[in-house]
Please model this.
Amino acid sequence: MKKTLFLLFAALLVAVFATESFAETGGQVFFRYGLSNLKQDRGNQVFTDTNGTAGINDDSSGWNISAGLDTALIRKLGPGSVIGEIMLDYARFSKKQVRQTTSALLAGTNNSEVTVSEFMAVVAPKYRFEGIAGGKIRPWIIPIGLAFMVNSPPSNDTNYLDIGYHLGAGVEYMVLDELSIGVDYRYTISSGEPNLKSTFGTLDLYVGINF
Model:
């Protein structure tokens, strides 16, 4: 059964990548890495540092790493094209030795490292300008997007899921037809579930594999 599924998956990949129309859509697989910054730190919460019992887990700046897929939705619209983006992003903001909640509940005094982080999946339309410098330079914007957000640790009310409004802008340079490098800035505004402080921005460099 596993072998059959593997063969079907391999056949699907071959069929997709061998299709000329797919290869000409102007899509991209990209990988990002850079800086992240929370609008408001999450220190002095129950699960981040047990309300500051033994240190405060209050850093708001860290790093993030992402991977995503762009596929063409509209090949030609004005000076550019409309791209559909799906992106997965992990951001870490703070990691400190603090009193962990479970230890405090058990009347313990041990500290341990607690990481304040965010994982999100983004679905967004991206407008990409084509034809600049012979098509080598491609600025783009994301005017609106939807982010599905997972917060760790949870809030004081034990909420850990949220949704957000995602926007961004960037520019890339096509080193080769198959390879681009770029830089972008993105900002995600959370809906604000009770005690969730998850609005944050990222500034990243990225590498794109074009197809």
